TrEMBL record:
<dbReference type="InterPro" id="IPR005835">
    <property type="entry name" value="NTP_transferase_dom"/>
</dbReference>
<dbReference type="GO" id="GO:0046872">
    <property type="term" value="F:metal ion binding"/>
</dbReference>
<keyword id="KW-0808">Transferase</keyword>
<comment type="function">
    <text>Catalyzes the formation of dTDP-glucose, from dTTP and glucose 1-phosphate, as well as its pyrophosphorolysis.</text>
</comment>
<keyword id="KW-0460">Magnesium</keyword>
<keyword id="KW-0479">Metal-binding</keyword>
<dbReference type="InterPro" id="IPR029044">
    <property type="entry name" value="Nucleotide-diphossugar_trans"/>
</dbReference>
<dbReference type="InterPro" id="IPR005907">
    <property type="entry name" value="G1P_thy_trans_s"/>
</dbReference>
<feature type="domain" description="Nucleotidyl transferase">
    <location>
        <begin position="2"/>
        <end position="241"/>
    </location>
</feature>
<comment type="similarity">
    <text>Belongs to the glucose-1-phosphate thymidylyltransferase family.</text>
</comment>
<protein>
    <recommendedName>
        <fullName>Glucose-1-phosphate thymidylyltransferase</fullName>
        <ecNumber>2.7.7.24</ecNumber>
    </recommendedName>
</protein>
<dbReference type="GO" id="GO:0008879">
    <property type="term" value="F:glucose-1-phosphate thymidylyltransferase activity"/>
</dbReference>
<dbReference type="Pfam" id="PF00483">
    <property type="entry name" value="NTP_transferase"/>
</dbReference>
<keyword id="KW-0548">Nucleotidyltransferase</keyword>
Amino acid sequence: MKAIILAGGNGTRLYPVTIPINKHFLPIYNKPMIYYPLSLIMLLGMKDVIFIVNPGDLTDFRKLFGDGSHLGMNIHYRIQEEPNGLAEGLVLAEDFVSENGICYMLGDNIFFGHDLVRHMADAKIEIEKRGGAYVFGYYVKDPERFGVVEFDDNGNVLSLEEKPKRPKSNYAVVGMYFFDNKAVQIAKKVKPSVRGELEITSVIEEYLKQDKLKVKLLGRGFAWFDAGTHDSFLEAGEFVATIENKTGLMIGCIEEIAYRNGWIDREQLKRLATSLQKTQYGRYLLELVE
């Protein structure tokens, strides 16, 4: 399985901060926002990643990640000319998608929780073995901001709706999706919504129609932030700061994960850490080396 991270868009909800800079480079506490979804991909053991980016941001993404070789990864890029909706990312990455399916992540979503990676691994295995779509739901107070999933009394999915005016539940579908490789062809047939976008909800709905959709609810003990608004951006940063300062361990440290995965060795990590040794981040990496 390979991974797609959607990191385009104009970041209008974070204006005026995002007028001069892509929101995915903004810091969630001590790291760029984009590190967090990438770190989860790495924790799943996935080396092949493609970023969907704006034309004007490609140079900066290459400056940040290059081809991924310094992390023992294979990182690629595709240009999204206009923010035409989340489902377009699947179409743009068509030639990258593997036979085993896709892990599709939104670059502005932050996740944390006990056994989170195990739940993601279960989804990955489910798709690789049986196909279909596997998504996650999370209880929110303001479901009208999100794609919402409706269940019957037995927990079966009845419907999905994007940003409904009258939500049928309080369960939002979060920005982490697992699809088989048929998702690309499904996305190609999606028609623009009333918002003028190719909605990822439409792709998921098609799997629901085929009875090939599984929804896993993330309950208590999990944190999810859609960091595309000022409030949630601030909340995410404060949350990461609290966890890291209490535990002494970093969340979303991609160099550490590459090292612990065995993708880079001690000397490679030391070189990366030395270039950042004047920072808290660099000192943390040096402690790992020592």
